[in-house]
Design a protein that fits this description.
Helices cover about 80% and strands about 0% of the residues. With about 110 residues, it is an all-alpha fold.
Length: about 110
């Protein structure tokens, strides 16, 4: 499975324009690590709502770019947050690894 779904990415590029897509990518690459850090901090603090909200935002942004695996991981964490379950194990590390892969692909 590709890291970025090309059809989804091309549709976004068509809708936003070739120039604006780079701004969107830059914003995502800057915001996503902050969201992941916010999720980590929320787990440590037991703050379910902040955790869920950041997972939701990351999920939405990932799917916008066609990063379906990253979006799926974030969705799983969002559901856990919605269920007030912060026993996430190593899921944030897995999410970070997938984000690194997505970031590398988007920079190309």
């Amino acid at each position: 499975m590709p890291v970025i779904d090309k059809a989804t990415f091309e549709e976004l590029k068509q809708m936003s324009g070739a120039d604006f897509i780079n701004e969107l990518i830059d914003a995502f690459l800057e915001d996503a690590p902050n969201m992941i850090q916010n999720m980590r901090t929320a787990v440590e603090a037991g703050d379910v709502e902040t955790f869920r909200r950041n997972a939701h935002s990351l999920k939405s942004n990932a799917y916008t770019f066609g990063a379906t695996a990253l979006g799926g991981l974030a969705r799983e964490l969002e559901v856990m947050g919605r269920e007030s379950n912060l026993a996430i194990g190593n899921r944030l590390e897995v999410l970070m690894e997938e984000f690194a892969t997505v970031a590398q692909e988007l920079r190309r």
